[in-house]
Amino acid sequence: MASAPPSWNRTQEPFAELISAEAIAARVAELGKQITEDYRPLVEKADVVVIGVLKGSVIFMADLVRHVALPVKLEFIGISSYGDETVSSGVVQITQDVSKPLEGKHVIVVEDIVDTGHTVHYLMENLATRRPASIKLAALLHKPERSEREVKIDYLGFTIPNKFVVGYGLDAAQLWRNLPYIGYITNA
Ligand code: 5GP
Q1: What is the architecture, at CATH level 2, of domain 21-185?
Q2: Most buried of the four, 30, 54, 122, 162, by CB within 10 Å?
């Protein structure tokens, strides 16, 4: 029997809850079901490869793929943006690449958040040059107010206001990724 995550001492957290663990779980299950339906006709003809963008997507990806009732392969890609950590410069570098070629495979990129859209735009363009059979994007969060690049999100968890969020994989200075919910910083 699975046990619930520990209750955090909310009075010590500098965050307000934006999306609860329960709401995340419900939405991730829906996305997994949709992916299962969409890829069921494809999976027998070519591999389906789910690529998690390190590190922010790890928790979302782990939950999402357990709601995909199909044989899929998992890969990870590491990227770094130049410039200030909280302001996307649009200049992105791949620091760790996937382990196998993507040619002829159905690729689903899993990202934590689409903010300005620069990171995902670069990544999708880069991966598309590797001649996958198809490529789609799953993103847990989208901040449309900050959008600078048009990005097609095929599987979106939640649209959020223009706040800096942490938890469920997202960090502030590498901390708080393990919060079971998504919060925004209130004391900054
Ligand atoms: P973009 O290139 O879309 O502006 O930025 C995407 C990346 O910026 C995300 O993958 C994430 O690493 C970071 N980012 C953007 N907004 C937030 C936020 O509200 N919280 C956290 N923790 N990271 C963010």
Answers
A1: 3-Layer(aba) Sandwich (3.40)
A2: 122
